[in-house]
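protien #1 (seq + structre)
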Amino acid sequence: MEPNRAHKLITGRGATAIYLALNASCKNREVIVPSNICYAAILPIYYSGNRPHFVDVEYPSGNISYRSAASAINESTGAIIYPYMYGNVSEDIVAIRQLCHEKGVLLIEDCASAMGARINGVPVGEFGDYAVFSTGHAKNVDLNNGGILYTDLPVDKIENDFQNLPVLNEEIVNKQSNFSKQYGTLRRSDNPEKVRELFEDREALKRQFLYRITDDGLLRQIDNCFSILTNESDAVRRKYDLFINNLPAYLIYNYSEGSFPWRFSILVDDAIIRKKIIEKLLSEKLFVSDWYPCIANAFGDNTNYPNARRMEREILNFSLRETEEDILKSCAIINTVLQGEKYEKN
């Protein structure tokens, strides 16, 4: 269900929406974010004249807890960006909203991976001062680009800032693709210093994250994304159930009630087994991802975030856009590896 908010603005991507929200309401402050958030949500913090304040997450949900948010707030805090990791919702958002209200801190609800989810029957996107959705690559509705910003706050400055952004074009699309490949290559090479260097020239990256869309066809699709998701939701849940029913329960990353899964995920705490699963899946040209890594050190924060690091070491996720045949193949390979190694989760 689409959030019921006073204002709705279609943006170039979710990162653009985060930038517009912060640029309108938060300047020269710290923005609290989980240390395993997508890098695309971090750069807009800098572009809006702010700086990230990373915090650890809960294990195994990967979400910020109320306790960690409350501990992190200080005199410099201007905002919290709260993503629903993997589309997994948490009732902590209700307490965090109250905390932000009491402290005068802006709450940005990052629903990029949680379109279609609800908390106690209320659609995500109705809890923050701002709510951000994405229809970018590999999101619940994948249109390759697009984001949406919802709010009940005044939007005059946001609309003015938005009109001054560049328009999505082929050059931006190509640069996005090249950057994504470069980041993936460097991260797989286990070279954190090179990854950090990749994000240092933030101004050069700006056009890849801040832009608007003028294509009427794409704009209509983005505007209609909740209807698209509703039409596809039964198929998505059926594929999710295929994973659930064909893999050992101890591996499963569990979603709380009301969540809408972004991907199907497992947690494998044996590094050798995990590596073998990845290698065998890729050798069969089957999709597997280890998203999201702990990103804090790429932005100069070398703090040890143990739960985020543990999530990074254990998480594997699989697209719910794959065919049912490929899903069953993936499950068979995972089971074969587990049986061959006589693996049991401790």
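ok now protien #2
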Amino acid sequence: MGVTPQTLSTIVLAQKYRGDVVRQANFRAVFLNLLNYQTGMGQNIAFVAEGTGVGVDLGYGETASITNIGSASQTKFLLNWSTNRANIQVSGLAQATAGTSGQYGPDANTMLWYRNTINAALQLTSSMNQQAYIGDGLNQDFCGLLQAIGSISNTYGGIARSSNTLFQPYVANPGTPTALSFAQIRGDLAQIYINSGRRPDIAMCHPNVLSALASLYDPQKFYMFGLNPMSRVIETQRGDFTLQGGIGAIDFDGCKFVEDKDCPDGYIFYINRDHVWIEVLPMNMSVLDGDESYDAALVREIYSQDEFGPLPFGFQVDILAKNTDSDTAMVKWYSNLCVNRPNSCGVRYNINA
């Protein structure tokens, strides 16, 4: 009788997966982590932008009549809420089999519905971090920096900048791709200070742009003045925020330049965080008390937590009606980015990085 060797293909074994499920996507939301958050109310984001107009007489005669009379102008700012959501669906059979997989793992799949809810929050956060730069603000879309501080001639929040020059941001656009220089950056920061009396505290840029800035430093001095540990510590509303995991930052003249994967390449966005924030419209649960058609058990609040930690977004998880053997939900967020003093911010275009 011949001998049959036992090989892997002839052995019946249970398949065990090591540890946890390993996410491959980069969901980091650097810019959203650095901004402050405010709770909104009502049908939109609204404030009044005040200009100039008071009459001033310098060196008037003792008996001269007052003819130069005026008052400061006021213009209303109205910005729609942005509606955003991520949608998930998991079959009942998938949840049941994952939940009974026991020691064979992966560990995270034993709570498959929870895992998918967290993934939805992460992916929505990452998408909103991108929209914070490029969102066009039309209808219910998020209004990003390109609309808020990227032009001196557009309309933002209903205010036409062409006729409200004090509501204009600083915009530097050489027209063609141009090498970055220290003189350009110092000029940008100085002009923003001249326009508003304030300087930006952070500047967001693509990793290629940060590399272009880093290359301007003398290699012997770069560590001291450039990518040193203190450059990675940034104060936020929620305490000191440390950029970990290779995120680069350069402290230049008191402004921290921070790289973000979602920032368009070739741009620098100068941000004064005293005047730039994310406004969030919470779901007012008390309004729904006594409404028999509303089931509060079907609504949950979930925090988005990327590798930097939890963010106070106030995401809502709504469980949708079932008509199949599966659970469906949407993770939704009502919010928008607001800039109440665009002249304290600015953007540089066409950086050859």
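Residues 112-134 form the longest helix (23 residues).
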